[in-house]
Amino acid sequence: MKSLSNLLDNKISVAKIVNSHGVHGEVKIVPFTNVKDVITNLEEVLLYNISTRNFFFSKVLQVKPLNKFFVLSLRGIKDMDEAKKMIGYEVFIDKKDLPSLKSDEYYWYEILDSEVYYEDGEYVGKVEEIIQTGANDVISIKNVEDDKEVLIPMTDHYIVELKKEDKIIIVKKIEWYENGTNQKD
Hints:
The chain has two domains: 10-96, Elongation Factor Tu (Ef-tu), domain 3 (Beta Barrel); 108-171, SH3 type barrels, CATH 2.30.30. The chain has helices at residues 4-8, 36-40, 80-84, 108-111, 175-178; strands spanning 11-21, 26-31, 44-49, 54-66, 69-74, 90-94, 115-118, 123-132, 137-143, 148-153, 159-163, 168-171. The chain is built from five helices and twelve strands. The chain is mainly beta. The strands form two sheets. A six-stranded antiparallel barrel has the order 1-2-5-4-3-6. Helix content is 12%, strand content 45%. A hairpin with a 4-residue loop joins strand 1 (11-21) and strand 2. InterPro entries: PRC-brl_dom, PRC_barrel-like_sf, RimM, RimM_N, RimM_N_sf, Transl_B-barrel_sf.
């Protein structure tokens, strides 16, 4: 018998159900990716609620874009009441079903929890969050020892080396962080 952790092996959460949509059992999701094909090509999914530890498998019958969200029609969810019960569930797919990326591209899960170092070898911390700014992603790095947060843009200028497989990122110091005030001169 498979345990819950086995069910999530080699799966990645690509979205979260945040609301119901309409009266026919559709759900509104917020995607965790900016690669639209990941969402528009959804077929078989594992729905898992981290809080309640409930899960079930479903088939995606239809995907519709809705501003920055998407609306899914899922097999087994037939009305608004059933759809409301799905709020909080995350949508997992097999990692192998993700579209291939170029060598300089990444999925967020590949860099979350990565260890970050400056070029001189100084430890910065661990990537806790990725913030979409519109222009580029920004990684939020937390160092638990000194309880500091450092924000680094994911641009060629600041990212010296990205070792996705090793979960290590080498970055340049941002000038205003060097004087310890986090203030620009």
